């Protein structure tokens, strides 16, 4: 009897070990399908990529792209609100499966996370008072510029002004705070996505903030953790399909007024 019990116990243990091994080997894509839900990190404080509309609903180009992704996967969408600085930490700590948060593809970020093929573009600019003549980084000498910490705008502004004397960069923890600082007059200049400038001006038309010059244009990708080949392959295929059928371009045009570049 004891021998039989020992054999049964051993078989159960082996079965559990096999299940655990299968679960640990199961990739992120399988986990999403088994959960029947995808957790997508979106910055809802970065219009028009992510925002809260007049009906207090989440809206924006990244929200709609995430909705399309969930629909094509056949799973529920759960939006995980993030800010620029915590996009990567939320992904790496598995608070989100993927990031769709105006997440530009850069060499620095590729050291830490993987990206899908580009599904949109981001142009980062410097904005300031319309009456001021600012044509490039050199004209920012002696100026104070607001920017969201850890964003592509922060990286490009830091790189572009490193040899220019008298530049003061004030870093805020999220886009909403950065935008408010400029619209309320705490700073006159802002480094941000081009789409942010109209929103800042709308908040306070008297400030008359306009795009002064473009720092750089970046393709946007869906961020995912490294070593998730099945998920990356799915996302690359999803982007390719929805670029070909025009759905991603339709979403982009709805919020930016122009279609995606043909060579994206």
Describe this structure in words.
It is a single chain. The chain has 264 residues and is of the alpha/beta class. The protein folds into two domains: 26-119 and 221-256, D-Maltodextrin-Binding Protein, domain 2 (3-Layer(aba) Sandwich), CATH 3.40.190; 123-218, 3-Layer(aba) Sandwich (D-Maltodextrin-Binding Protein, domain 2). The chain has helices spanning 2-25, 28-35, 61-73, 87-92, 107-110, 152-161, 175-183, 196-203, 229-244, 247-256; strands at 37-42, 51-52, 58-59, 76-81, 98-99, 114-115, 120-129, 144-148, 168-172, 189-193, 209-220, 223-224. Helix 7 packs across helix 8 (196-203). The chain is globular. Residues 37-259 form the Solute-binding protein family 3/N-terminal domain.
Strand content: 15-25%
Number of strands: 12
Q: How many strands, what sense, and barrel or not for the largest sheet?
A: 5 strands, mixed
Terminal Cα span? 69 Å
Mean pLDDT: 89
Question: Which CATH architecture of the largest domain?
Answer: 3-Layer(aba) Sandwich
CATH superfamily of the largest domain: Periplasmic binding protein-like II
Order of strands in the sheet with the most strands?
A: 9-8-10-7-11
Using the alpha-carbon principal axes, give the shape. Answer: globular
Structural class of the secondary elements?
A: alpha/beta
Radius of gyration based on Cα positions: 22 Å
> How many structural units, i.e. domains?
2
Query: How many helical stretches?
Result: 10
Low-confidence stretches: 1-25
CATH top level of the largest domain is Alpha Beta
Keywords: Signal
Domain Solute-binding protein family 3/N-terminal: 37-259
Protein name: Transporter substrate-binding domain-containing protein
InterPro entries: Solute-binding_3/MltF_N
């Amino acid at each position: 009897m004891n021998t039989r019990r020992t054999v049964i116990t051993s078989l159960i243990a082996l079965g559990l070990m096999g299940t655990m091994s299968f679960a640990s080997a199961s990739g992120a894509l399988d986990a999403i399908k088994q959960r029947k839900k995808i957790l997508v990190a979106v910055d809802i404080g970065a219009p028009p990529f992510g925002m809260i509309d007049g009906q207090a609903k989440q809206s924006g180009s990244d929200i709609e792209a995430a909705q399309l992704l969930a629909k094509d996967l056949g799973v529920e969408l759960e939006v995980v609100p993030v800010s620029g600085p915590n996009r990567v930490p939320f992904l790496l700590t598995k608070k989100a499966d993927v990031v769709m948060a105006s997440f530009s593809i850069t060499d620095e970020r590729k050291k830490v996370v993987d990206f899908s093929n580009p599904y949109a573009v981001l142009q980062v600019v410097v904005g300031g008072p319309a009456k001021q003549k600012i044509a490039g980084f050199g004209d920012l000498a002696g100026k104070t510029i607001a920017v969201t910490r850890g964003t592509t705008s922060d990286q490009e502004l830091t790189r572009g002004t490193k040899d220019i004397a008298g530049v003061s960069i004030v870093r805020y923890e999220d886009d909403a705070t950065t935008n408010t600082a400029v619209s309320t007059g705490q700073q006159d200049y802002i480094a941000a996505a081009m789409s942010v400038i109209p929103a800042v001006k709308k908040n306070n038309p008297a400030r008359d903030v306009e795009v002064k010059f473009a720092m750089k244009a970046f393709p946007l990708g869906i961020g995912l953790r490294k070593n998730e080949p099945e998920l990356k392959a799915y996302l690359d295929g999803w982007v390719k399909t929805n670029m070909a059928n025009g759905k991603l371009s339709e979403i982009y045009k709805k919020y930016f007024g122009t279609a995606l570049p043909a060579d994206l």
